[in-house]
Write a structure and sequence with these properties.
Blueprint lengths: L12 H13 L4 H31 L3 H13 L2
Helix pairs in contact: 1-2
């Protein structure tokens, strides 16, 4: 079972009203809707962090040795 932590969220009335409307249209609760939106934001942040990490690794990777090795193999088969 997941741990649920209660929290207080202060919203402008217009935002609160709009979120309630959207949640109602989607046949879900206000809480479930907000949790889903926040989960999506967290997932996008994690994906961005992974993308950035892989991009950085690619920039720092030294692949010259592999290029030379491939060149040697090609020359041997010519």
């Amino acid at each position: 079972m997941r741990n649920i932590v209660p929290c207080t969220l202060r919203l402008e009335e217009e935002i609160y009203t709009r979120i309630k409307e959207i949640a109602r249209e989607r046949h879900t609760s206000f809480t479930a809707f907000v949790q889903g939106v926040l989960a999506d934001v967290l997932k996008k942040e994690e994906q961005k962090a992974l993308y950035d990490a892989f991009s950085l690794a690619g920039e720092e990777a030294d692949v010259d040795f592999a290029s030379y090795a491939q060149e040697e193999v090609v020359k041997r088969h010519e």
